[in-house]
Amino acid sequence: MIISTLAFYLFAGMTVASAFMVIAAKNPVHSVLYLILAFFNSAALFVLLGAEFIAMILVVVYVGAVAVLFLFVVMMLDINFTELRQGFLQYLPIGALVGIILLIELILVLSGWVLSPESLSIAAQVAPVTSDLTNTEQLGHIIYTDYAYLFQAAGMVLLVAMIGAIVLTHRQRPGVRKQNIAKQVYRRPEESVAIRKVEPGQGV
Hints:
This protein is 73% helix and 0% strand. The chain is mainly alpha-helical. Helix 1 (2-24) runs antiparallel to helix 2 (28-48) and helix 2 packs antiparallel against helix 3 (52-76).
């Protein structure tokens, strides 16, 4: 019990610290790396809660795809982050106001939960174990039996979105040159090479 509590505070503290460094780091590449660290610590918290499937999805999807994509985009784009930070001070009062409102709401919610005896009695009750299956097995059983058609429909929506993104990328736009590999391979030498006889003293 003590080990799990210490592990929770360790991962929670690392998550909060890395999340703060995401917005505090001046280098955008460092911000993405801190974001990856926050995702890993959040996945560890889900493992402690017994939700290993959500932890695996968090690592595979967010760390393996989204965060790495952010990292490549930040490294490839030539963005002047100094100009982006110039308008930070003019939005600071609005951001501070929103942050104070959210803090007050969180304090009211947490104080109401602590002072309510009903919530404490409900939280103290142990949930009954209905099956010997693990969390991942139960979730997979529900998805592929009760919600199989909805799961397939979600896959079709993602497929249509992917095809739409590809079609929009390859659409014909004026002024944009595209490489035609077949035309390059099948062109003849006389179409690409010009032999000219230059007299002495007439060259450039």
